[in-house]
Amino acid sequence: MAFQPKDIKTFFEKTASWLTEKGVLRSARFGSKVIWNSFLIIVSVCFVGTFFAGGIAAGYFASLVKDQPVLNYETLKKDIYHYSETSELFFSGNVPLGKLRSDLTRTNISLDKVSPTLIHALLSTEDELFYEHEGVVPKAVFRAAFQELTHQPIVTGGSTLTQQLVKNQILTNEVSFERKAKEILLSLRVENFFSKNNILEAYLNVVPFGRNASGQNIAGISAAAHGVFGVAPKDLNLPQAAFLAGMPKNPFSYTPFENHGGVKKDISSGVARAHFVLKRMLVAGYINKGQYEKALAYDYKKHFAKPKQSPMEEYPYLTNEVENRSKIILAKLDAKQQGLNGEQVYKDYRTYKKMDYLAKTDRHHRSIKEITKARGFNYSKLKDQYDLFNELLKNADNQLRVKGYKIYTTVNKKIYDAMQKAENNYSNYEPDKIEIVTDPKTGKKKKVHHPMELGAVLIKNDTGEIISFVGGRDFKLSQVNHATQTKRQNGSTMKPLLVYAPALEKGVIQPGEIVADLPYKRYINSSGDFYEPHNYGGRYHGFETARRALAESHNVPAVRLYTKLHPASGKPAQNLKKMGFTSLFNSDMHNLSTALGGLTRGVTVEENTNAYTTFANDGNFIDAFMINKIVDKNGNVIYQHKVKPVHVYSPQTAYLMLDMMRDVIHGGTARSLSSYLKFSTDWAGKTGTSQDWRDSWFVATNPNVTMGIWTGYDKKYTLNHDLYSRHTQQLWARFANAAYDIKPNLMDPAERFHMPAGIVQRTFCGISGQNVTNLCQRAGFVKTDLFNEKYAPSRNGHALVQNGSGVTLRKSFIKSHYPYLDESGMTDELWGTLNPRAPIPKEQPKAKQRKKPEEKPKPNNRTKPKEKPNKHKPADKKKKPEN
C-alpha cells in the first residue's frame, strides 16, 4: 500500500495522544499542532541548511579551481597524449638495435594490442565502475574526503582511472584539496571529450610499473610486459596480468627486480598484491573459481624476464655514434623551424671549435678572440652561433629521450658483429705503452696502460652508406670512437687525394711519366728555416715513373710534384674540402707538408676513407652517412637522407688514379695484402705512415665498397718500425674477410673498375711526356702506359740534348721540372743521372736501374714491406711533427 500525505497527519495525531496520556502534553489537539509545526520548522531548516552547505561547498570548490584555465579539446589532447617515449634504433633492413639511453623506458601501444585479461585485472582493482561513471565517483570522493578530514586511514581510493590520468599528465602529485578539485574538474572535461577506450589506452601508456629485469625504470604496459615477463602485452596470461595490474598502486614496492637488475630475494609483496587482484577479478565475475585457484599456484620466479644488455652495453660505440649524429640532425631541423639556416649555424659552430683548438695550442698564447680576428672571422657572431647550436643540441638530446623517434641506420648488423669479433680475436696487437703518473688524490705513483688502438670503416661507394665500422678495442678503456672522432695525420694516404689526382687532372703528370726522386730543399722564411722532405731510410731513387713513386710511397717526388701545383694558392687543397675534409685549417691549405699528410690537426678515418670513394664514383664525391631516416611516433618521416654527389675529378682522372693504386697492392707497399685475404677482387689502395711512426693507415677501394683503417695509440707513441704496417694490413684484411663471409657479392664484385672513354695507351718518352725521339731511346726513357687522351703525347719534347757521345738533360729542363733541387745533397751517383757535364751511359740511363748494394731485397708474400714515413728536417735540426 502506497504512503499517503494524510498518513503524516495521522501519525502526528497518534503521537500527540500518546504524549497526552503520558502527561507530557495538556491536550492531544494542541500537542498535534505543536509537533506538526516543529516538524515543518526542522524540515525547512534542514532544507535551507542543505542548500546553504551546498552553496558553501560550491563556492569553496570554485575558489579552489579559479586559477585552472578551461582547457579545450586540442589542449587536453596534447596534454593527455604528451608522454615521454624512448627513441628506438634500428640496423639496416629494419633490424632492431634497441632503445636509447633514458631515465625511463616507455613504448607506446594501442589498446587492441593489449590482453583483455590485463584490462579486466586493472579495472577490477583500480576502477570497477570505469565504464559507468563520468570521470568521478561521488560516493568514493566523499568517502575519501571524510577519511581525510577525520584523519582516518584511507583504506579505499577515491580516484578513477580518468583522475589518475589527469594527475599524471596535467597536474602534479601534490596532496591538497586544491589539486583534488582541479583533478575532478579536468576529469569531467576529459570524459566529455574522449571515449572510454581513448582514456584507457592513454592510461595504460603512462602508468609506471617499477623496473624491468635489467633494473631500468619503466612505464606503460608495453615496457612492463616485455620488461617483467618477456612477453608482448597481448600474450599476458592470467597470473601475469594480475601481477602487472597490481603494480601501479606502489610500483617500486611491488616490482620483483633490484635497481641494478636481477630478481629480488623477497617478492612476497608483489605476489600478495597479485593474489589480491585475482580475488577482485573473481568477485567481479571476470574469472571462475578454477581459474582463480590455478592462478594462485603460479610460480612467478620461473617466468620473470631475464636481464638483457642495453644497446649502450652491447653496442656502445654504435649507440653513441647514432645518438651524436641524430642530435646534430635534429638540431639542424630545429634551427630550420626557427627560421634559421641550420647548415650555416652548424658550420659556424664547427669553426668556433677550430678557433678554440688553435687558441689552446697556440705557442704565442693568444686568446681565442685574437686567433679568430687573425683568421678573418667575427668572434661575437661565431660565439653566438656556437652557443645557439649548443642549446639546439641540448634540446635535441631531450627529444631523443622523450619523443619516441624511430631511427633507422645504414649499419649492417651481421657485418658489424663479424668485424667486432675479428677485432677481438686478433692476437698480434703491439704491447701496451706504460705511463707512470701521479695520482692527484693520493700523491702516489701509478702505472697507466695505453693499448694499441684502431679505427676502421666500411662505406658503400654509390650511396655513401656506412655499412660497418670498428670504433676501438674496448669502450670501457676509451670512449673515443677512433673511426669517426679521432683526428690524426693521414701520412701518405694523402698523396692520391692532394697530389697525384690533381696533377693528373691538370695534365701536370700522367702515370708513366718520369719524376725525380732527388734531394729537395726549400727555404720558407727569411730566418733560414727550410723544408726538406726525406724518404724512408734517407735514400733517393733518382728517376722513376709516377706510378712507381706512388706504389713505393716515395715522399720527395710527391712534394716536388705538389710544388708544381702551386700549393701557395690553396687551390689543390680545395679538393679536400670537396671530398668531405672538415678539420682543415688555413695552414693546411698551403703548407708543403700537407702533401705528405702533415695536417695541423689531422683527419678522421671516416673522412679519409670517404674521400677515396671519389675515385670509385668516377670522380664524384658522395658524403658518407649513418642515419638513413628518422620517424616520429605518429609515423611521420621527419628526416630522410638524400644523396648529393659533388664533382671533384673527371672520370679519366679517377680511373688513372685507381690504376696507379692497383700497383700499390700488386708490387708496392701493400704487396703482402693478397696473402691475408680469402678472396681476390679489383682492389686499389694506399698505405700511409705519419711522422715518427705514430700513425699507420691503409685505405682501399673496389667497385662496390671502400674500407679504411688507422692504427696507433691515443697518446702519440711510436709504433714498431718493423711490424706496424703488417699489423695494419692484417687487421684490414680480417675485417674485409669478415664482411666477405656475410656478403660475398658486396665485397667481391663480379666486375672490375670500368675504364671510361678518353683513356688511351701510348708509348712515349717518359722524361718529357712527349713523343719518343732518338735521344730518348738512347737515354733509355721510353715508356708505355695509360694516358688521359687530352694529355696524350702530341709533339717532340726538348728535355734531352746530345753531349759528346752521351745524352743528358737540358739545364732549362732541370730548372723548370725539378725546382728546389738541393745540390748539397746530391751524391756522385745522383749527379750521374742529372749533371749535364756527366753523360748518361746508354746501358745505365736511370739511377733506379743501377744496383744499390745497400738496398734490401724485396720481400716476398711472407715479408711485409716497410711503409715510408714522412720525415722533415727543420732548420734547428731538431725533429718536429708536421704542421
UniProtKB/TrEMBL annotation:
Its main location: membrane. Residues 832-883 are annotated as: Disordered. One of its GO terms (biological process) is peptidoglycan biosynthetic process. Residues 455-703 form the Penicillin-binding protein transpeptidase domain. The chain crosses the membrane at residues 34-62. Pfam families: Transgly (PF00912), Transpeptidase (PF00905). InterPro entries: Beta-lactam/transpept-like, Glyco_trans_51, Glycosyltr_51/Transpeptidase, Lysozyme-like_dom_sf, PBP_transglycosylase, PCN-bd_Tpept. Residues 97-281 form the Glycosyl transferase family domain. Residues 869-883 have a biased composition (Basic residues). GO terms for cellular component: outer membrane-bounded periplasmic space; plasma membrane. It is found in: Cell membrane. It catalyses: Preferential cleavage: (Ac)2-L-Lys-D-Ala-|-D-Ala. Also transpeptidation of peptidyl-alanyl moieties that are N-acyl substituents of D-alanine; [GlcNAc-(1->4)-Mur2Ac(oyl-L-Ala-gamma-D-Glu-L-Lys-D-Ala-D-Ala)](n)-di-trans,octa-cis-undecaprenyl diphosphate + beta-D-GlcNAc-(1->4)-Mur2Ac(oyl-L-Ala-gamma-D-Glu-L-Lys-D-Ala-D-Ala)-di-trans,octa-cis-undecaprenyl diphosphate = [GlcNAc-(1->4)-Mur2Ac(oyl-L-Ala-gamma-D-Glu-L-Lys-D-Ala-D-Ala)](n+1)-di-trans,octa-cis-undecaprenyl diphosphate + di-trans,octa-cis-undecaprenyl diphosphate + H(+). The keyword 4Fe-4S does not apply. GO terms for molecular function: penicillin binding; peptidoglycan glycosyltransferase activity; serine-type D-Ala-D-Ala carboxypeptidase activity. The keyword RNA-binding does not apply. Keywords: Carboxypeptidase, Cell membrane, Cell shape, Cell wall biogenesis/degradation, Glycosyltransferase, Hydrolase, Membrane, Multifunctional enzyme, Peptidoglycan synthesis, Protease, Transferase, Transmembrane, Transmembrane helix. Residues 852-868 have a biased composition (Basic and acidic residues). This is Penicillin-binding protein. The lineage of its organism: Bacteria, Bacillati, Bacillota, Bacilli, Bacillales.
